[in-house]
Write a structure and sequence with these properties.
Number of strands: 2
Structural class: mainly alpha
Shape: globular
Strand content: 5-15%
Largest sheet: 2 strands, parallel
Radius of gyration: 16 Å
Distance between the termini: 21 Å
Length: 119
């Protein structure tokens, strides 16, 4: 798992390079929201032999097909974020430093993972 913090007013797709630059195992598919629909991200993923499953923005002139069956799996990620936000400390960000905030996200993620394993 990889977590990064950007400034609150920073667009989501600018954090893409931070997360994908790490030496994590190579994904085979990138499930992402419309925010990540940019030619740069699509080209980066194609060079790395990763299939981008990103719906198109309404303003895109060149239409690209999306595998809707794969895209539905993105719902699992969204539900994970919702469960993380159930931890009040994550939702309101009480921590003053980025290190302690990221640490609590890791602790909450481990707690969710252990709860998932026990069911």
């Amino acid at each position: 798992m990889r977590t990064e913090i950007t400034a609150g007013q920073t667009s989501d797709y600018l954090g893409f390079d931070l997360v994908m630059a790490d030496n994590l195992p190579e994904p085979s598919v990138l499930l992402a929201d419309r925010v990540y629909d940019s030619d740069n991200i699509r080209k980066t993923m194609e060079v790395r032999d990763v299939v981008p499953v990103i719906p198109m923005r309404k303003t895109r002139k060149l239409r690209v097909a999306v595998d809707r069956r794969l895209y539905r799996l993105r719902n699992l990620v969204e539900r994970c974020f919702n469960k993380l936000k159930n931890a009040r400390r994550v939702a309101t960000r009480y921590d003053k430093t980025a290190e302690s905030f990221l640490g609590f996200i890791d602790i909450t993620s481990i707690r969710l993972w252990l709860r998932h394993l026990s069911t």
